[in-house]
Fold this sequence. Notes:
Blueprint: E1 9-12, H1 15-37, E2 40-44, H2 50-57, E3 67-71, E4 73-75, H3 85-92, E5 104-105, H4 114-129, E6 136-139, E7 163-169, E8 172-177, H5 179-183, E9 188-192, H6 198-205, E10 221-226
Parallel strand pairs: 1-10, 2-3, 2-6, 3-5, 6-9, 9-10
Antiparallel strand pairs: 4-8, 7-8
Amino acid sequence: xxxxxxxxxxxxxxxxxxxxxxxxxxxxxxxxxxxxxxxxxxxxxxxxxxxxxxxxxxxxxxxxxxxxxxxxxxxxxxxxxxxxxxxxxxxxxxxxxxxxxxxxxxxxxxxxxxxxxxxxxxxxxxxxxxxxxxxxxxxxxxxxxxxxxxxxxxxxxxxxxxxxxxxxxxxxxxxxxxxxxxxxxxxxxxxxxxxxxxxxxxxxxxxxxxxxxxxxxxxxxxxxxxxxxxxxxxxx
Length: 236
């Protein structure tokens, strides 16, 4: 699999600069989509790295009344639990902006039939996006090479449905967008920070098929890394 071109990769000095650049790029994409169609769709990942990005995005002039926010993945846990990606997303972003409640689309991980919940979320995604193609998808990169909730060796990377259930993965069942749903997006943004990710970033950019994250397509993709995560990349 071919790697990304150099122009799709930016290495920023630190996590603050990383978050600010990500917020600028996402704001631009959402504003253009909203202006063109009256609606914009964004799916975001969880984890520790995005928190500053979410906080920066809350300060940007995003047309929130026209933006629909989806989740890339979510842990099966009670509402408000610290393990839930939604909990951090609400605190850092959603509770700070004037987004209509109906424009927020949490993964239905509290449903008693989690598989039915995943299927329903896929239908919701397609209905809102007009066929399932999100305008922007934000991804992270795990220490084991996963993105979204695609654990190494899990059959979810070969799924044909838009949303799947995996796990237990690191102690919890997860609901996740699958490669088909991610790869239909108009644009994909990787956000990676920390020295522990440096070898993985280099492998991802080389298209290492051993990484679940390498199932993400290579075109219309931007990867932002802080200096620590980009330390193993050649200067350019």
